[in-house]
Design a protein that fits this description.
34% strand; 8-stranded antiparallel β-sheet; 8 strands; globular
Length: 209
């Protein structure tokens, strides 16, 4: 299919509540296929339609070895209390922070064929970060970014370095929302920032919106 340009933090569509999909057509099915290709190219765990410039209530995400698409998704149950874990976002690349999320959720919606599906999602060895991902992507559809929910003091740049054995490790450096926006607008990212090439090119190769 196609790899779509991912919208970067500061783009107004990321703060807009997405509209419900009234009818699933070939247009929505092509969008979903393109979103999956885009998510794969950026090594992501999930991607919402507003992140590729489409204000529709659609997202795709990984649940273990499977990739699911959900149209007009809704969380119908939360279980296990809340846990705090690290999160990142393809629209805020090179950064991570700690966010409190429900440990397990049940989400429902329609798939690309229009069939109503219901999925139990939890974080763990079997499903990866499925529960976190569903909550993160659903926030995107409501115009909410994870950076609005971070544990204070946990927002950090993520750098790639080598340890004494030559193994690649990630090193965190505390930052602020203002610094992140300034770096993105400068269109000059540190060479050792941990960021997929497609997102580096997106920021450095185009004028900021």
């Amino acid at each position: 299919m196609a790899i779509l340009p991912i919208r970067i933090w500061g783009d107004p569509i990321l703060k807009k509540r997405a509209a419900a999909v009234s009818r699933i057509t070939a247009e929505e099915r092509k969008l979903i296929a393109d979103m999956i290709d885009t998510m794969d190219a950026a090594d992501g765990a999930g991607l919402a339609a507003p992140q590729v410039g489409v204000a529709k209530r659609i997202f795709v995400f990984r649940r273990g070895d499977d990739i699911h698409a959900l149209i007009n998704p809704k969380i119908i149950k939360r279980e296990g209390g809340q846990k705090v874990g690290n999160e990142g976002c393809l629209s805020i690349p090179g950064v991570q922070a700690k966010v409190a999320r429900s440990a397990k959720v049940v989400v429902t919606g329609r798939n690309e064929k229009g069939k109503i599906i219901e999925l139990e999602c939890e974080d763990g060895d079997e499903q990866g970060r499925a529960a976190t991902c569903v909550q993160h992507e659903l926030d995107h559809l409501d115009g909410v970014l994870y950076i609005d929910k971070v544990v204070p003091g946990s927002l950090s740049w993520v750098y790639e370095e080598e340890d004494e054995d030559g193994e690649e490790v990630h090193v965190l450096e505390e930052t602020t929302p203002e610094e992140i926006i300034a770096v993105y607008r400068s269109r000059r990212l540190p060479e050792d920032l941990a960021i997929p090439d497609v997102l580096r090119a997106r920021i450095e190769g185009e004028k900021s919106r």
